[in-house]
């Protein structure tokens, strides 16, 4: 008897799940529509660049499968290279977009509702691009999936970061589905959960560096908090870029209002960032603490640090303050500059942490010990990194074709 | 069950590098300058000829410190790095995912990548070779012509290493980091 009672119930749940999935609104398009786009010079250029970057990804991956980690310029003294920086770049972008997306559908700021769906979709594609890049940086990704579950290292920041980002991706996808369906109540619930898990994951990523007692330049509370701030900043930069492409730099009044609001928030965030970085530099140098102050002085002398400061901080801040963010077209270009600066920010974080050799008593090994550890990415690392960007653009483009990423008028 | 450690009478070191060769031979460590479990650090003679400060030259053998509070173990996401029953910090290559976090976190730069398994490798006090065969010394200790190294059970009051640590002054490397190394440098 009990079996006959359970069966219809199970069927009911399966049927409901099936019904839920089949009613997700998407555009039923064929390959022709998917690959069809307006043949303007700008679109042609972006398409060509994306194709080149995807080809680079393929070549990079093949080289990696043939040569393994030897295809990368990482070494015993500098085991983390460009790919880790690019992974961080993508997951920071994802967290930033999640914050931007949450402004409307979680926190209820009406002006920002119009970017929610687009930002949440962006957060999904950026983290997927990040996962694609990190999967070829980590030596044994399949082993990771198995032993992350079987023998979890709970004291490891990498374990928490990876696990929380996995959960975050699930929340983001579910939130996006509810946004597509126009179910704002459940979108808000999953959006808030995703945001909290994402922020936790992201500050854990900062703690991957902050927990390094052996590296005084990175050790401490700075990175776990700084990561959240820079994620928000990155999210605003990307919001300008995706809206710029969406409206071909001819923004309707409603979008202009939103972007002006975002620009003002950005001015505040960048000011706080400059304040943070200035004081980090002062405290690093002050007192001449060994292994910290000389590293900070060395960083101040590197062009990549100034690329970060000028491109991600000074140029965008100056252009926002010029007319209090009322020129979204100018800020679109400023945001492109900002994203290049953010890339250098991530690269510097990874490289600077490993700058100082740890050989304390190993004063001379088989060759003279370098004063600083040198690293320059290999061609394979560069190709995979640019390929990650290509993947990101391609997935986002496909998303704009398959889904309606604009705000629904009836919500 | 023991608590293995090593005392190094490092001022006796003559930099013959026999320990490095013995370690590579015993444990099958690959050739190459950046593939090593142990090493001998060299303090160059200071000054300029003819005013050379001869006593400034010294040799400092080193390796994994087998910390009681090992940062490499704490940061490992899959517990591939673990303490065995004798307190030796070891790597289970089946679980290692080569995220390299341990290499960045180790304050002693004691880890490298084994190209055969593409996992992180380090000194394990010959646990899977000599100790596994029932011997009581490590390859580096056994081969040292000036008897720099003394390996043994720190929990055994009567062991040679315990006696040495009771009677000789000693220091640990980067003790300020709280890693509690089990390598002791005798002064």
Question: How would you describe this structure to a colleague?
Answer:
The complex is a heterodimer of chains A (411) and B (187). Chain A has 411 residues and is an all-alpha fold. The mean pLDDT of chain A is 90. Chain A contains 14 helices and no strands. Chain A is globular. Chain A has a single domain (38-402), classed as Formate dehydrogenase/DMSO reductase domain (Formate dehydrogenase/DMSO reductase fold, Up-down Bundle), CATH 1.20.1630.10. In chain A, helix 3 packs across helix 14 (379-402), helix 4 (82-105) runs antiparallel to helix 8 (184-210) and helix 7 (157-181) runs antiparallel to helix 8. Helices cover 73% and strands 0% of the residues of chain A. Chain A has helices spanning 2-22, 31-35, 41-67, 82-105, 113-135, 141-150, 157-181, 184-210, 222-246, 253-285, 293-300, 303-322, 328-353, 379-402. Chain B is globular, with a radius of gyration of 17 Å. In chain B, strands 10-1-12-11 form a four-stranded mixed beta sheet. Chain B has a single domain, classed as Alpha-Beta Plaits, CATH 3.30.70.20. Chain B is α+β, with helices and mostly antiparallel strands. Chain B has helices at 18-27, 71-75, 101-105, 139-143, 160-167, and strands at residues 4-8, 38-43, 46-48, 51-53, 58-63, 81-83, 89-91, 112-114, 119-121, 149-153, 170-171, 183-186. The interface between A and B is large, with 45 and 42 residues.
Strand percentage of chain B: 15-25%
Largest sheet of chain B: 4 strands, mixed
Q: According to CATH, what is the class of chain A?
A: Mainly Alpha
Helix content of chain A: over 70%
CATH fold-type name of chain B: Alpha-Beta Plaits
Which assembly state applies to the chains in this document? Answer: heterodimer
Give the integer mean of the pLDDT values of chain A: 90
Number of strands of chain A: 0
Structural class of chain A: mainly alpha
Structural class of chain B: alpha+beta
Low-confidence blocks of residues of chain A: none
Largest interface: A-B, 45 and 42 residues
- Class of chain B, according to the CATH hierarchy? Alpha Beta
C-alpha-based Rg of chain B, rounded: 17 Å
Poorly predicted runs of chain B are none
How large is the share of residues in beta strands of chain A? under 5%
């Amino acid at each position: 008897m009990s079996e006959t009672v359970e069966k219809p119930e199970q069927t009911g749940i399966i049927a409901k799940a099936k019904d839920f999935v089949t009613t997700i609104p998407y555009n039923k398009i064929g390959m022709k529509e998917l690959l069809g786009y307006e043949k303007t010079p700008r679109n042609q250029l972006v398409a060509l660049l994306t194709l080149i970057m995807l080809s680079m990804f393929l070549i990079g991956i093949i080289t990696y499968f043939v040569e393994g980690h030897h295809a990368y310029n990482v070494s015993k003294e500098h085991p983390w290279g460009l790919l880790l920086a690019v992974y961080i770049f993508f997951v920071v972008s994802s967290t930033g977009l999640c914050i931007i997306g949450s402004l409307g559908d979680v926190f209820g700021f009406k002006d920002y509702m119009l970017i929610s769906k687009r930002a949440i979709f962006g957060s999904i594609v950026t983290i997927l691009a990040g996962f694609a890049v990190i999967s070829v940086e980590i030596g044994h990704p399949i082993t990771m999936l198995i032993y992350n579950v079987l023998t979890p290292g709970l004291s490891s920041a990498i374990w928490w970061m990876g696990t929380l980002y996995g959960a975050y991706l699930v929340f983001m996808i579910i939130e996006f589905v509810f946004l597509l369906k126009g179910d704002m109540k459940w979108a808000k619930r999953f959006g808030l959960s995703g945001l909290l898990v994402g922020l936790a994951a992201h500050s854990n990523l900062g703690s991957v560096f902050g927990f390094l007692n052996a590296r005084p330049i990175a050790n401490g509370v700075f990175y776990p908090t700084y990561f959240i701030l820079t994620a928000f900043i990155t999210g605003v930069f990307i919001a300008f870029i995706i809206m710029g492409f969406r409206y071909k730099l001819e923004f309707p009044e409603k979008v202009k209002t939103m972007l002006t609001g975002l620009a003002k928030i950005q001015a505040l965030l960048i000011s706080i960032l400059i304040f943070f970085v200035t004081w980090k530099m002062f405290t690093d140098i002050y007192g001449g603490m060994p292994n910290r102050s000389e590293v900070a002085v060395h960083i101040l002398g590197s062009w990549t640090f100034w690329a970060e400061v000028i491109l991600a901080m000074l140029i965008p801040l100056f252009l926002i303050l010029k007319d209090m963010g009322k020129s979204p077209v100018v800020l679109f270009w400023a945001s492109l500059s900002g994203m290049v600066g953010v890339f250098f920010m991530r690269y510097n974080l990874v490289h600077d942490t490993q700058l100082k050799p740890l050989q304390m008593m190993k004063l001379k090994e088989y060759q003279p010990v370098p004063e600083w550890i040198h690293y320059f990415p290999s061609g394979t690392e560069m190709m995979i990194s640019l390929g990650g960007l290509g993947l990101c653009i391609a997935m986002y483009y496909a998303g704009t074709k398959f889904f309606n990423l604009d705000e629904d008028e009836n919500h | 069950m023991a608590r293995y450690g090593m005392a190094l009478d490092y001022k006796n070191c003559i930099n013959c590098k026999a320990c490095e060769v013995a370690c590579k031979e015993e444990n099958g460590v690959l050739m190459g300058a950046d593939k090593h479990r142990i090493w001998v650090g060299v303090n160059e003679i200071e000054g300029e000829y003819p005013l050379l400060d001869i006593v400034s030259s010294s040799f400092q053998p080193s390796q994994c410190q087998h910390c009681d509070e090992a940062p490499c173990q704490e940061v490992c996401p899959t517990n591939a790095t673990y303490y065995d029953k004798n307190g030796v910090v070891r790597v289970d290559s089946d679980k290692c995912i080569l995220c390299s976090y341990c290499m960045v976190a180790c304050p002693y730069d004691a880890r490298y990548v084994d190209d055969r398994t593409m996992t992180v490798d380090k000194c394990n006090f010959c646990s899977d070779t000599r100790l596994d065969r029932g011997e009581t010394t490590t390859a580096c200790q056994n081969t040292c012509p000036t008897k720099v190294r003394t390996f043994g059970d720190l929990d055994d009051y009567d062991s040679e290493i315990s006696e040495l640590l009771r009677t000789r002054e000693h220091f640990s490397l980067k003790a300020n980091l709280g890693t509690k190394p089990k390598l002791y440098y005798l002064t």
